[in-house]
Design goal:
By secondary structure, this protein is an alpha+beta fold. It is built from 9 helices and 11 strands. The strands form 3 sheets. It has a 6-stranded mixed β-sheet with strand order 7-10-9-8-6-11. Helix 2 crosses helix 4. The two termini are about 35 Å apart.
Length: about 280
C-alpha cells in the first residue's frame, strides 16, 4: 500500500491522515504515518500494536532484526514502541478520527466515489459531527476577533483544560486598558484587523469559532512563536498556551450574555456554530 492514505481494519491510516496521539492522556497533533506508528512497521509489525503516538509517548527498544534485507552489522535494530508494547502489556484503545479528517472525507472530491458506495458510513460520520460538544470561551476584544480571523493562533490562560474540539468565541463587553492599548497602539494588531477590513469590533456576542487542538506550558513554548504572536498573548512563566486551528468567523455575531470560564454551548449556539463550519 502507499503510505499517504490506506486502511487497517476499519481505521484510515497513512501520513495523509491527520490524527491525535493514541495515548489516552495526550491530544498532540500527529498523522497516521510510519513516523508515528508503534512498531516502526506497517500495522505494527512483530513487536508493536500499530497505533500512533507522538514523540513523547514513543520509546526506542533494541530488537532482533528479522527484516528480509539485512545489512551486515545490523543484527539488532531500534524500533519505536508505545509504553504498553514496550513492557509487553495489552495495547491502548485506538482513538476516533479527528474532526478535520471526518470533514475531509465528507466533502473532498477525492472521496466522492467512496461516499457514493458507503452511504451508511457517511451518515454515521455526519452523526458524529452533529453530536459533538461545542464549548464557549469568553475573550476580550481585540483578541476575540484576531482568533476567529486566524490572525491569533494561540490563546494564553492561567489554567489548563483537557477539552479538545470546537470552541465558540464569545467577545465580551469588557474592554480593559491593556486590550485598548493592543487594539489602538500595537502595529501587529492594527495591520491584522485592517487586512480584514475590521473598523468596528463586535462586543457581547458569539463571533465565530476555532478548534482547540492542544495545550502546552508557556515555559516550553516561547521559542516556538513569532514576535507577532507574542504580542497577542501573555506568555508569562507558569501559564498555559491553548493552540487553535481552523478558525471560522460568523457572518453576523449572535448576541449572548456570557460568564467566566468555559462552558457547554446551548443547543441554539451549538447548532449555529456547527452549521457555520459546514456541519449540517
Amino acid at each position: 500500500m502507499g503510505w499517504e492514505i490506506g486502511s487497517f481494519g476499519d481505521r484510515d491510516i497513512g501520513y495523509g491522515v491527520p490524527a491525535v496521539c493514541d495515548h489516552p492522556a495526550c491530544n498532540a497533533e500527529i498523522d497516521r504515518g510510519l513516523s508515528y506508528v508503534c512498531g516502526s512497521d506497517p500495522y505494527g509489525g512483530e513487536h508493536g500494536c500499530g497505533l500512533f503516538f507522538c514523540e513523547k509517548h514513543r520509546n526506542y527498544k533494541e530488537v532482533e532484526n528479522k527484516r528480509t534485507i539485512r545489512v551486515p552489522g545490523e543484527e539488532k535494530i531500534y524500533i519505536n514502541l508505545c509504553a504498553r508494547c514496550y513492557y509487553g502489556k495489552p495495547s491502548f484503545e485506538p482513538k476516533p478520527d479527528v474532526t478535520k479528517w471526518i470533514n475531509h472525507k465528507l466533502t473532498h472530491e477525492s472521496w466522492a466515489e467512496w461516499r457514493n458506495e458507503n452511504t451508511e458510513e457517511v451518515e454515521s460520520l455526519k452523526t458524529v459531527l452533529r453530536n459533538q460538544t461545542v464549548k464557549i470561551l469568553p475573550m476580550w476584544q481585540p483578541y476575540a476577533s484576531l482568533a476567529v480571523l486566524g490572525e491569533k493562533e494561540n490563546e494564553t490562560r492561567s489554567w489548563d483544560t483537557r477539552y479538545r474540539g470546537v470552541v465558540a468565541i464569545y467577545a465580551t463587553k469588557n474592554f480593559p486598558p491593556s486590550a485598548k492599548s493592543l487594539a489602538y497602539d500595537n502595529l501587529f494588531c492594527r495591520e491584522a484587523l485592517s487586512r480584514h477590513f475590521i473598523e468596528q469590533l463586535p462586543y457581547a456576542g458569539i463571533i465565530g469559532s476555532v478548534e482547540l487542538v492542544e495545550t502546552e506550558k508557556t515555559d516550553s513554548f516561547l521559542s516556538k512563536i513569532s514576535e507577532k504572536e507574542r504580542a497577542f498573548g501573555d506568555y508569562s512563566p507558569g501559564r498555559f498556551v491553548w493552540l487553535f486551528s481552523n478558525p471560522v468567523e460568523l457572518k453576523e455575531p449572535i448576541p449572548f450574555k456570557g460568564q467566566q470560564g468555559m462552558w457547554n454551548a446551548p443547543d441554539e449556539i451549538r447548532n449555529a456554530i456547527l452549521q457555520s463550519r459546514g456541519i449540517q
